[in-house]
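Section 5.1 Outputs to date
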Amino acid sequence: MLYHIGKGLSWLAAKLIGRTQVIGRENIPRQGGVILSPNHSSYADPPLVGVASPRPVWFMAKSELFQIPVLGPMIRRVHAFPVKRGVADRQALRQAHQLLTAGHAVTIFFEGGRSRDGKLMPPELGVSMIALRAGVPIVPIAIIDADHFMPREGGVKFARVKIIVGEPISVDHLAGKHADRAALAEISHILATRVADMMRAHGGADRVPADYPPQV
């Protein structure tokens, strides 16, 4: 119930203050395990993905947030689970795998962290590895101007946020290659390219560095 209350409040803020537009919501599969993989420029991104999704979503969030009084227990109740940054967090990987193989949707940011200037960062290999291990598709998501809605310095401001959901990327042709770096790089490059193309097509070209994405 708390998840649905939180989603309702997030929807109100996204619509009234963020003036959020969602394009391509129908590309999120209604059933089965799937990774939703957006770019990341703002703390608003997780609830924005929840608003855009027609189904409940789980979130991988940095472990430091779970140490904050009130916030930590609250985000656990809205489907967040911790991941330690900068290390191979086996517990987080195991939990993501269990959720995906049980048929849930899990949000994992493909850049591995939050952009400081709002521009796309090079993709990490984590999303690809988790997708191949679980045998689930990846849905690319471009979020434009979330950092205007909820900037780094704090607070919430009026903005015009766009969320563009692309068609799922199948990893079936690379099944069993979760330890093959070339396979992981291939998927990561496709994912980052899809997000960059959606940003360019929907008014976010200034968020895409020249010659993006780089080779992983």
